[in-house]
Amino acid sequence: MKRTTAAAVMLAALATLTACSSEDSSDSKPAAEAPAYTITEQDDSGNQRTVRVEVETADHLREVFDDVAGKLTEEAAWFVEINCKTGGTGKADNRLGNGRKSVGTIGAAGTGMPDGESEFEALPDPKCPA
To answer: Cα separations (Å) of 89 from 17, 68, 95, 122?
Structure first.
C-alpha cells in the first residue's frame, strides 16, 4: 500500500508541473516547447522503470519525450511510452512512440546506452483519432 500511496503522490506532483522549454547548448535557438501532456503512470522504484504519457495530438512527440526525459534524474533504465489520449482500449494503448533514457551505471546496464544518453522513436505515421 505504501508504494501505491507514494506513486499517487508522485503522479500528483508531476501532474502539476508544466511543460517548459530549454536551450540546447549546441544550438543557438531555443528548443521547441513541449505541448501539454499528462503522465498517467511512473514507476518509482526498481532498476528498470516505465513512464506512460498521454497527449491530445501526435504533434511534437519529440518535444514531449525530451521534456519528460529531462525530468528523469534517478538512477535507472527509463522507458517512456507516449500514447494518444483517445483511441486506445482497456487492453491496448494507442501508442505513438517509445523512448528510453540511461541514468547512471544501472541505467547504462539496463538500456545498453552510456549514462545520460536517450533516444526516441515515433511509430510510423502516428495519429490520434479525431
So the answer is: 27, 24, 11, 20
> Cα separation of 81 and 121, whole Å?
10
Cα 86 → chain centroid: 18
Quick check: helix, strand or coil at residue 20?
coil
Inform me whether the pLDDT recorded for 25 exceeds 80: no
* Number of alpha carbons in the 13 Å side-chain half-sphere of residue 6: 6
* Contact (CB, 8 A) for 104 and 115: yes
Reported residue count of the chain is 130
* Average pLDDT of span 11-28: 38
pLDDT band of residue 34 (cuts 50, 70, 90) is: confident
- What's the pLDDT score for residue 19? 35
pTM: 0.73
**What is the sign, positive or negative, of the torsion defined by CA atoms of 4, 10, 15, 21?**
negative
